[in-house]
């Protein structure tokens, strides 16, 4: 059923009270096809909405907002080393991770507690603590909204990059992801080298490493550093960590010896955007109800009644200050509408 003039405040983790001219949810391919044929919305812009955890509404949406609620999780295949698990795009991501952990299927433990739904995982190539979706992604099925055909995308087809895929660039707003299949490991390959995971495992008193222990360590770290969207509106990391060449890195290192950077395989260096923002004095900054989180400068927050345009304006001031101080351009990770 298509509803008119729907408030989107409860459908986005920033809690922005934008309106959508039309709104409907779907729980199957057939239901989505029926909505696309609804006479009232013919020719209007359409947008697929998942968990609303990576979006900032700066204005109302004059079109049809389609909420993906396709559910279901099941093992669809296995071989000697791997288990292939398919999940509906509308499943909660952390719930899906917990489902895999309960069955001892390894590979997603470092991605625990990331907000959002399964469908966004390949779209964003979500990543945390040294792991990205491309490491476990097998395939997905998506409906092309214009010609109504279902297309299967493999790992190569998705052209994964750092927080990037074909769905954010050339196929933006052209597909609705229906389901995603992951290739998980029967024998775990523990990844504890990134961030404070080892430190947290020690603090937890873990003697025997397991995917469940790593997951809990990640949950503990994320909970201590990042605001809960149910309490303070936010979309997690607002900016990507920028990549620079070696010459630029050496120049910055000479000027700022404490700069936080990670070498990449191609010879470039990835800078910690949170560190750059903090050095510009933004950590804990607040203007009205728009602010920069006090514990993690990478996270912009809505303390209650901020408009999306106010949060966006704050993000632009952050971008400008980092550019001025370091000569580095920050790119927004969050989708702006």
What does this structure look like?
- Strand 18 and strand 19 form a beta hairpin.
- A five-stranded antiparallel beta sheet has the order 6-7-12-10-11, with helices on one face. A four-stranded mixed beta sheet has the order 1-2-5-3. A four-stranded antiparallel beta sheet has the order 13-19-18-17, covered by helices on one side.
- It contains eight helices and 20 strands.
- Helix 4 packs across helix 5.
- The longest helix has 19 residues.
- With 337 residues, the protein is an alpha+beta fold.
- 39% of the residues are buried.
- 24% of the residues lie in helices and 27% in strands.
Runs in which pLDDT lies below 50 for 5 or more consecutive residues are none
- Helix content range: 10-25%
Helix/strand-derived category reads alpha+beta
Q: What distance separates the N and C termini?
A: 24 Å
Number of strands: 20
Mean pLDDT, all residues: 93
**Assembly context of the chains:** single chain
Count of individual helical segments:
8
Main sheet attributes: strand count, strand direction, barrel closure:
5 strands, antiparallel
Q: How large, in whole angstroms, is the Cα Rg? A: 20 Å
Q: Overall 3D geometry?
A: globular
Strand numbers in spatial order across the main sheet: 6-7-12-10-11
